[in-house]
Amino acid sequence: MNAPLIATVGHGATSLWYLTRATGLVALIVLSSTVVLGIVSSVGWTTERWPRFLSQAVHRNLSLFCLALVFIHVATTVADGYVPIGFADAVIPFRSPYRPIWVGLGACAFDVLLAVAVTSGLRRHIGFRTWRWVHWLAYLCWPVALIHGLGTGSDTRLPGVQFVYLLCVVAVIGALGWRLVTARALTSGWRIGAAVGATFVLLGTAVFAFTGPLQAGWSRRSGTSSAVLAKIDATASASAVPSSGQASSSSTTLPAGAPAASPSTPFSSALDGTYSVSSPDGAGQVQVQLSMRLATGGLALVVDLAGPAVNGGVAMTSSQVTFGTRHGQVTFLDGSTIDATVSGSGGSENLTMRLELDRAAGTVSGTVSGAAGSQSSDGKGDSQ
Ligand code: HEM
After folding, report:
1. Angle between the 52-80 and 100-121 helix axes, to the nearest 10 degrees?
2. Most buried residue among 164, 184, 293, 349 by CB atoms closer than 10 A?
3. What are the 10-residue block averages of pLDDT along the chain, 384 residues in total?
4. Has residue 219 been placed in a domain?
């Protein structure tokens, strides 16, 4: 029976994490639509088929829907437990241990959404002016949520997701521009100020995206802890595969007859080998060893992972990768993908392994590709 190496099948955590990602993206789309409809109703645009009250009603309902989505987004993030984010981190900005700045911006956006919802409910009691001032914050909430999504999201580098971001930006900036041009009540000072502000936010976001989340290595730079970067769920593995050859970061066993020369980069090769997981020791530490050999050239590749059992899985705290004569560490683990950086006399190399595990047989097979230099993969489940 083939299965992903780092099995999360039957482990709710992965589906919760996918839900976090999906609800985040949908929340951003709904938030953008809410902002656009807010602008449409404030401009007073109407047709025979689309009376003004409809814009207001849809705007109001969409904002409530957005809030509900963000609640789910936050709840799944916290319940998932894969990254150490609590409910307090969702409302108190910049205290999350995981990507503190970028999750913190999500908390800011969430707080603003809550403030807008609460003041809308209390509108009669707090007066129109106060309500309106708070409501203006919704404009601020949008770019903050956008940057949060770009900076935190695992999917930022996926073309489809980038298209969604682009669509949201075009819709909101287009609506804002339309409002600035058509709104008679606005003085030219306001118009120019708002236009300059919007341009500034737009350019800033573009520069941020192209120099940050769209670059390799963003996970590490964004504040993902190494334990999270290398977290592995080995629950099923630990119970299904008999312990053999205790994997250890200090005692790597190379398959016999390993040749010393590594293939020149870039390369890609099939590989196969064996897989073993130790039973938890007295301190709850689990060790995993993958001892593999490349189909092309026969070079040995050994990955040792070790760490404490966490939430029924293992949070890897140490690793060792040996590829021919080169040594290094795992930089990323998720599902059936492992990234590692190894270095030796010829410089450093980034390896990406996509593996499948046969638990019953204790074997592993898949592919490995290698690239020279600093190309690397990022955090949890990332396309980054
Ligand atoms: C208005 C509020 C919010 C919006 C519109 C929003 C939207 C988004 C978007 C668009 C993403 C990217 C999803 C992806 O790349 O697949 C994302 C990711 C994320 N958000 Fe939020 N978010 C909000 C608030 C929050 C809050 C308060 C938290 C705190 C718990 C949070 C936690 C996260 C996390 C942990 C991720 C990363 C998920 C991943 O790895 O892809 N978000 N959010």
Report:
1. 140
2. 349
3. 35 69 96 91 75 80 94 92 82 87 95 91 88 85 95 86 95 90 77 87 91 76 57 36 34 42 78 78 76 84 79 67 88 78 83 78 82 55 44
4. no
User: How far is ligand 1, taken at its centre, from the CA of residue 208, in Å?
Assistant: 17
CA separation for the pair 52, 183 (Å, rounded) = 15
pLDDT the model gives residue 23: 96
Q: Are 119 and 113 spatial neighbours (Cβ–Cβ below 8 Å)?
A: no
Does this model's pTM top 0.90?
no
Best residue among 74, 80, 152 to mutate for probing ligand 1, ranked by most atoms within 8 Å of CB: 152
Task: Give yes or no: residues 309 and 178 share one domain.
Answer: no
In this structure, how many other beta carbons lie within 10 angstroms of the beta carbon of residue 192?
Answer: 12
73 shares a domain with 201: yes
Q: How many domains does the chain have?
A: 2
Q: Is 185 exposed, middle or buried (0-12, 13-18, 19+ CB in 10 A)?
A: exposed
Judge if 67 and 185 occupy the same domain.
Answer: yes
**Using a 6 Å cutoff on CB, does residue 301 contact ligand 1?**
no
Residues near 43 by Cβ (< 8 Å), separated by ≥ 6? 178, 179, 182, 183
- Bridge partners of 356, per DSSP, are 4, 365
- 19 and 106 inside one domain: yes
The residues, ordered by sequence, that sit 6+ positions from 264 with a Cβ below 8 Å of its Cβ are: none
Distance CA 364, CA 56 (A): 57
Which domain range does residue 166 map to?
10-153+158-212
Q: For residue 40, what pLDDT is reported?
A: 84
Which of 25, 112, 148 most suits a substitution to test ligand 1, by most atoms within 8 Å of the C-beta?
148
Same-domain pairing of 233 and 194: no
Closest Cα partner for 383 from 177, 167, 218, 251?
218
Is the N-terminal amide bond of 93 cis, ω within 30° of 0? no
pLDDT for residue 178: 87
